[in-house]
Amino acid sequence: MLLTLSPGRRGRLVAALGTAQTIGWASSYYIPAVLAVPMAASFGLSPVWVFGAFSMAMLVSAMIGPWAGARIDRLGGRGVLMLSNVVFACGLATLAAAPTPAILFLGWAMIGLGMGIGLYEAAFATLAGIYGREARGPITGITLIAGFASTVGWPLSGLMLVTWGWREACLGWALIHLCLALPLNALLPRGTAPVVAPVAEETGAAAPPPFAMILLAVVFAATWFNSTAMAAHLPGLLQAAGASTAMAIAAGALIGPAQVAARLLEFGLLRRFHPLVSARMAAAAHPVAAVSLVAFGGPAAYVFAVLHGAGNGILTIAKGTLPLALFGPVGYGQRIGWLNAPARILQAAAPLVFGAALAAWGLSAVWLTAGIGLVATGALLWLRRR
């Protein structure tokens, strides 16, 4: 029996899930930038140890992702996403109470578990189970909202840090999960009954071609690597190109708005086209940005940031819409979990690898990410519509 959601309720569902995703990202992926230094200092450690714990969390999320996706395929996403809020809260509370570095690492491992069952992949799988092939719009909608996770998360973490301390900041995020994100995820429909009838051809859908899966996994891994490398080292890269510190920071501030603007473009004009079209343009944006930065130096910092941010914004959506458009909604959750597992592993290594390249090669390190971007673009050109 099909569920029926009115347009108004569909909007409320997207708003609720998008807000819960914002909390999930802000309290996991974005807290090391603000809390890593005081967190490490309280144990007499270098911040490298905290970032290492965060990399471990991403590896944990990579391992748990396929299981979470398969469970969402069978039972729906409501329970899994609500569980993620409890796991996030427990992990953050463990950080807040950690007496030793070992317990700190345990807290980050728990947060990694929450990331694996509660961030975009799980949300995308939930929407695919509800809307089937019509999930592209809702997927874009939640990424539009959660695109402000850093905008909300960094200032809020900083405010809690200066007002109370890093332990209390972690505890504050834990309470936000339990008091706000958990009730929001509870608004999702129960079970797996879709709100739209499945297409006849999907009833007995065959397994997707293995080569197509490999190509898509390469795309996701390449783009996640570049995204994480730039998130960690963009100011340093722009300064190596000749930009001043103030210019590098100002250019970096444009990435968030560029991501949101590109997602609005995807939600409007580009939704008329197959997701492969927008994904190919988005993957090519970083190599083009790299060429402009090398060719024109510091003055091109703003162009680089806008192109990279716009491409990254659309590619985040493509991670949800491409598997849906190419392979259909049957088995989507487990499939997206496997597709993103290599990406999570490379994401964990990206800050270290690109940091070493930047230290050794200076501005020429951008050719590493440009080449990786070209690999992603080539793989997308090789992929064909179903």
UniProtKB/TrEMBL annotation:
Keywords from the UniProt entry: Cell membrane, Membrane, Transmembrane, Transmembrane helix
Gene Ontology CC terms: plasma membrane
Protein origin, superkingdom: Bacteria
Membrane topology: Multi-pass membrane protein
Subcellular location: Cell membrane
InterPro entries: MFS, MFS_dom, MFS_Efflux_Transporters, MFS_trans_sf
Listed transmembrane segments: 46-68, 80-99, 105-130, 142-165, 209-225, 237-262, 283-307, 313-333, 367-383
MF (Gene Ontology): transmembrane transporter activity
Database matches in Gene3D superfamilies: MFS general substrate transporter like domains (1.20.1250.20)
All copies of domain Major facilitator superfamily (MFS) profile, residue ranges: 13-386
PANTHER family registered for this protein in UniProt: CHLORAMPHENICOL EFFLUX PUMP RV0191, PURINE EFFLUX PUMP PBUE
UniProt-recorded name of the protein: MFS transporter
Lineage: Bacteria, Pseudomonadati, Pseudomonadota, Alphaproteobacteria, Rhodobacterales
